[in-house]
């Protein structure tokens, strides 16, 4: 019976953290999936690991979300493991496929898996947007020209009057003016 670890690369720190956990869990060998292989069909290292493992062997991961990015592909993998009598262990979640769990515990593992995937996809989307130099969040209510005009109008009017003219809240107007002065 051998215990093999599997890591999906996202960044260097996460790879190091996952390898330390899997080594501590007693893995004799660890396979690292390159960052480029995001979907299940192209996970070359995972396919190699599944071929190497035999009846009674253990595949260890830190979290279930390392294996798959959808519930369907996770279940397909688990059925494959079941057919080959391979034991799946998720070290951080204390999940071992050979143990029996009640419905509440299974739903808990499933909800953790879904949350991990949501967080992962959100982080990926944010990093992709930053790489493309796209602004995150809501667009500003006032353009730079409007802020300059508001600063000019504020000398003779109250903040409330100027805010009403631009159809924004007083606090929004003051926030835009403060950012403008800070960047100048």
Automatic annotation (TrEMBL):
<comment type="similarity">
    <text>Belongs to the site-specific recombinase resolvase family.</text>
</comment>
<dbReference type="InterPro" id="IPR009057">
    <property type="entry name" value="Homeodomain-like_sf"/>
</dbReference>
<dbReference type="Pfam" id="PF00239">
    <property type="entry name" value="Resolvase"/>
</dbReference>
<dbReference type="InterPro" id="IPR006119">
    <property type="entry name" value="Resolv_N"/>
</dbReference>
<dbReference type="GO" id="GO:0003677">
    <property type="term" value="F:DNA binding"/>
</dbReference>
<protein>
    <submittedName>
        <fullName>DNA invertase gene, RlgA</fullName>
    </submittedName>
</protein>
<dbReference type="InterPro" id="IPR036162">
    <property type="entry name" value="Resolvase-like_N_sf"/>
</dbReference>
<feature type="domain" description="Resolvase/invertase-type recombinase catalytic">
    <location>
        <begin position="3"/>
        <end position="135"/>
    </location>
</feature>
<dbReference type="GO" id="GO:0000150">
    <property type="term" value="F:DNA strand exchange activity"/>
</dbReference>
